[in-house]
Amino acid sequence: MREDLLHFIWNFQLLKTREFVSVNGTKIRVFHPGELNKDAGPDFFNGRIEVDGIILVGNIEIHVNSSDWLKHRHENDKVYDNLILHVVYKHDKSILQNTKHNVETVELKNYIDAAVLKKYNSLISSSSALPCSKQIRNVEEIKIQSWLQRMLADRMESKTDYVKHVFSAAQNDFSQTLYIMLARNFGFKINAEPFELLAKHIPLPIALKHSGNLFQLEALYYGCAGFLNRAYKSKYLQQLQNEFEFFKNKYKLIELDSSVWKFLRLRPANFPTVRLWQFATAIHKCPDLFKNPENYNTVESLLQAFSYTHDGYFSNHYKLDGQEVRTIKGIGKKSVENLIVNTMAPFLFFYGKQTANDRMIESAFECYEELPFEDNVKTRHFTKTGLKFKTASESQGIIQLFDNYCKNTRCLDCGIASNLLFHK
Ligand code: SF4
Predict the structure, then answer these.
(1) The total number of structural domains that make up the chain
(2) Closest C-alpha to 37, from 65, 10, 74
(3) pLDDT greater than 60 at residue 424
(4) With a 6 A CB cut-off, is 416 part of the ligand 1 pocket?
(5) Which of 49-58, 75-84, 85-94, 281-290 shows the lowest per-residue confidence on average (mean pLDDT)?
(6) 139 CB near ligand 1 (under 6 Å)
(7) Do 360 and 244 fall within a single domain?
(8) Spatial separation of the C-alpha atoms in residues 193 and 200, rounded to whole Å
């Protein structure tokens, strides 16, 4: 028996009854188990019980064995003098401190439903990546949805830590923050770091100054990315090189070493050379997104901001001076959705919190509600069980749940497990 399982059982009262007989033969009735305390001090605060007809309100301590009281060195701790109940799985020792302060001890061993333990054991012994995969369909949909909503809120908060960090590095400038975040997202994990670095090398005001001229933006980005410092046969690339040389001197720009960019195992459409062009085009087509980001707070406006057709040299070259290919399509719908989910919504949420603008916070959640469910390795563990999901708010909640709970078998902290173990 684990103490955290006892906490869980007591917290949700997964017991055969609410009426107990203490080890001294006293009748105890539990009205409220108390609030679980994960910090120092008694395990449950503000429990409400009846002991021999007298109502008591106060703290409750839980142990696997009564003797754990001594192991945990409570005997010299005054905090434990004013308990209302000591709950143990097995009563193996009388505790002087409890006797002195008239604290009754309840032994739970015979009150725990064997089915609960069986279900719990099957959960923690499961070798599946989703330990509850066989039972989760027994949980009411509304309970799963409500837990996923809570997970989504946690995910937003944890993303906020990253945005906060970028915001402070950007001297509390919202536009520059969005610019850095978006650049990082255009790197789509594999090239996120060099993309972020590149954006830091070309400050937003410079990019915006040249936003009206895509050729100049291309010179800035491909040049600073380190792609223009070799000999090219293409006239267009030679022109870009000349333009970049001019900007480099004018703005004292620093080039990245092109070896930082990764091409391996990427489909050509995801090559950084293609993503750079898409990023430059985004700035060219919608500079207002960076100037007034608060105006782009709906999925519709964001889809519009990122939907553009491409032309020019990079519309048919995956790599500089590579072979000419058929026209490369603009940024795909899935990629735009990814940008909204991973950058725009967390940015709007942060913006709303910083400026006390509830509408922006709502907009962030609306984006998740309106975008479709994301199919990926993590969410597939849940859809494979037969559960049906529709929106990005659900997939975001599942990602948070999987990373922070399922992966570490933290089922005892999970709102789905409490419903699962309740299920008859
Ligand atoms: S943490 Fe929750 S969702 Fe994940 S396996 Fe355990 S009970 Fe299931």
Answers:
(1) 2
(2) 10
(3) no
(4) yes
(5) 75-84
(6) no
(7) yes
(8) 11
Ligand 1 binding pocket includes 8 (Cβ within 6 Å): no
Look at residue 136 and tell me if it is in a domain: no
Q: Is 204 in the pocket of ligand 1 (CB under 6 A)?
A: no
Which residue CA neighbors atom 6 of ligand 1 most closely?
Answer: 411
Residue 118, helix vs strand vs coil: helix
pLDDT tens per residue across span 148-166 = 999 999 999 999 999 999 9
CB-ligand 1 contact for 410 (6 Å cutoff): yes
Identify residue 245 by its one-letter amino acid code.
E
Length of the chain: 424
Ligand 1 atom closest to the Cα of residue 414 is: 2
> Which of 119, 124, 136 has the most ligand 1 atoms within 8 A of CB, as the residue to mutate?
136
405 Cβ inside 6 Å of ligand 1: yes
DSSP code at position 136: G
Range of the domain at 343: 170-370
Question: Does one domain contain both 104 and 185?
Answer: no
> Do 219 and 353 sit in the same domain of this protein?
yes
Instruction: Give the model's pLDDT for residue 76.
Output: 84
Is residue 149 situated within a structural domain? no
My answer on whether 237 and 357 are in the same domain is yes
What pLDDT, on a 0 to 100 scale, did the predictor assign at position 421? 81
Please give the pLDDT value at position 423: 61
pLDDT for 14 equals 87
- Collapsing DSSP to helix, strand or coil, 4 comes out as helix
As a whole-number percent, the residues of the chain with pLDDT over 70 amount to 99
Which residue, 112, 129, 151, sits at the end of a domain?
112
Q: How many C-beta atoms lie closer than 10 Å to residue 14's C-beta?
A: 20
Contact 88, 63 (CB under 8 A): yes
